[in-house]
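Posted in: Structural Biology > Protein-Ligand Complexes

Title: Requesting predicted complex, adenosine-5'-triphosphate in pocket

I'd be grateful if someone could produce the 3D structure tokens for the following input. Sequence and ligand are given below.
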Amino acid sequence: MSGAAFLDIDRLERVFGGGRTLFGRARPGVHAVREVTLDLRRGETLGIVGESGCGKSTLARMIVGLDRPTAGRITLDGRDLVAEARRDPRALARRIQYVFQDPVASLNPRRTIRAILEAPLRHLRGLDGAARGRRLADLMEAVNLAPEHLDRYPHEFSGGQAQRIGIARALAAEPDLIVLDEPVSALDVSVQAQVLNILDGLRERFGLTYVFISHDLAVIESVSDRVAVMYFGHLVEIGRVADVFARPRHPYTRLLLASVPAPGRAVAPPEEGEAELPDPYHPPPGCPFHARCPRRSDICLTAFPPRDSAPGRADHLSACYHPEGDD
Ligand SMILES: Nc1ncnc2c1ncn2[C@@H]1O[C@H](COP(=O)(O)OP(=O)(O)OP(=O)(O)O)[C@@H](O)[C@H]1O
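-- Reply #1 --
Done. Output follows.
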């Protein structure tokens, strides 16, 4: 994309472990995120989907500064995030917030909701006591909770309410970007819809940009403008969600979609998709999906495929030697 990208991720890598032992022997490492390149416009929601262990959380943690890339670059509004985190970690934390999967565990059980929400407000300049009180009430209202709840403790709330408090805490710092890591996976389906509605309303009201991680395709379809599909640390497909879901190019995306019944979607035959993920300590050569892929050929074992776009759909990219649906 052009220089207009708000968040720009360029060939990002994260390796855990590796290196050498004291005696010079190679230690096995896990390449959790490999050469991931993507960008986001302001106000956009990018969904990130993939099976457990594909690197979604590691990518999310690097975007919010909880983890450091081994290589590659992340820039927000053109500024390098790792350098910013070193220079002024608080300023960066204000701009990018994280919402965790487990809502109750992410809230300190010994602090009231008031104390939890006040902590990020302390870093906002020019808020006197009265303004802070108004801001707390506004935050509660933004997530549909009555201000009377402010003096209660996290364990007094249901999972859905606790997640709304987690969202209010993220909002308190007035961020530009919120990274949501499986924010509704721990909730009942009926409660999921409420939380997703609230998130949607907040995005519009505050002009927020979201990175939304989920293994649930229905959730990704309902919240995302674009979707990025990850497999074994790689980004294998990215494009507008309607486009990717209607016309997946990567055989892995097709397999993921076919495993979830939906109107108009073919369901995968049972033998497909049951093979296991490759061993992360011993990655296979070439495309890591080749062992499960119905379209593989010899070239797939040579090197990871280059990323290219669908004919006539420049914003729909996939990394596959034999993409589907281009003809
Ligand atoms: N701190 C760590 N040390 C060693 N390996 C790690 C660490 N964190 C993640 N990994 C490995 O990196 C790979 C990617 O993990 P990650 O948690 O990012 O995937 P995920 O897609 O978010 O999975 P899940 O949905 O299960 O959280 C996995 O093989 C995981 O075991």
